[in-house]
Amino acid sequence: MTHVPGARFGVELAPEHPVDRVVDLGVAAEAAGFEDVYLSVHYNNRDPFAALARLAERTDRVGIGPGVANPHDRHPLTLASQVATLDEASGGRARFGIGPGDPTTMQSLDAADDRGLRPVLETFKTLERLWAGERVDHDGAFTAVDAGLNYEPPQGASIPVHVGGEGPQMCRMAAKHADGLLFNGSHPDDLAWARTQVEDGLGERPDGRGPFALAAYASVSVADDDAAAREAARPPVAYITAGMAPPVLDRHGIDPDRADEIGDRLSVGAYSEAFDLVTSAMVDAFCMAGDVETVADRMDRVLDHADGIIVGSPLGPDVDTALDLASEAYSRAT
């Protein structure tokens, strides 16, 4: 793999656990060699910024940030200060992941129709100006009137912005305007497709924007027991499959009717039935699942197209062990 400035090996943790547990996992991730720790952002989990503040106190090296925030459940001006405060608390280690928001979450917030490229772009462009000490007026996807921060974060306008998404327009926009793309994908074919979109966007990237990194924001389930790892992958793969666009299902030969059936089961809370509908092909397509050797091989093939990997849910049947195993797999792959 050719190292690209800004390319990282990270982990996404979900604050579905108590804050103490989430912070302990973040500390363990730093000890295992991860370079970044992202906390997922969903209104129905614990507040990620509260946990990130604690994580800033307990870690020394890892970059930390939301993975990914969205411009719908909190005002962009509030996001600007939250991330700047995190940057200050961590001594300049903040990273800002931003995306249109998880479809299920946005539906609960009655904001499903607001998901799109424009709010994401306008939000992080405004935040960069605020972090640079500018005062901002904005009238677009959101409104701001003579807004500004009363302090300057350690990194200032250099807080890295990484866009989370998988649609072609979002990929190209990230390549043109952001520092990186957190592409929701775990399969080399999907990352090859994402690289094509990114290359199109990079053709319009301003010269002064700096380097760009494409990271696979991948579902990973790793354990010493291959079968146990694949079984643990069923729940997240069910959600991924249910929300996946038809062209991606077609790319992997997955029956769209079965994907719809999984979504129908999930929507009514029939989780066991939904998970039982997950096929081996779905696990292969939407998760790096297996023992260390299997996951290392998948990472190696993904890194033919991506600059880095962010290891996401479910991690494995035993999360604590999975952190070390995922780090070992990444070391073998690189």
Explain this structure to me?
This protein has two domains: 258 residues, Luciferase-like domain (TIM Barrel), CATH 3.20.20; 53 residues, no CATH class. By secondary structure, it is an alpha/beta fold. Helix 3 crosses helix 5 and helix 7 runs parallel beside helix 14. Strand 7, helix 6 and strand 8 form a beta-alpha-beta unit. The protein contains 15 helices and eleven strands. The termini are close together. Strands 1, 2, 3, 4, 7, 8, 9, 10 and 11 form a nine-stranded parallel β-sheet that branches. Strands 5-6 form a two-stranded antiparallel ribbon.
Describe how the helices and strands are arranged.
Blueprint: E1 9-13, H1 19-32, E2 36-39, H2 48-58, E3 63-66, H3 76-89, E4 96-98, H4 103-108, H5 117-131, E5 136-139, E6 143-147, E7 161-165, H6 168-177, E8 180-183, H7 188-202, E9 213-222, H8 226-232, H9 234-243, H10 246-251, H11 256-267, H12 271-276, H13 280-286, E10 288-290, H14 292-302, E11 308-315, H15 319-333
Parallel strand pairs: 1-2, 1-11, 2-3, 4-7, 7-8, 8-9, 9-10, 9-11
Antiparallel strand pairs: 5-6
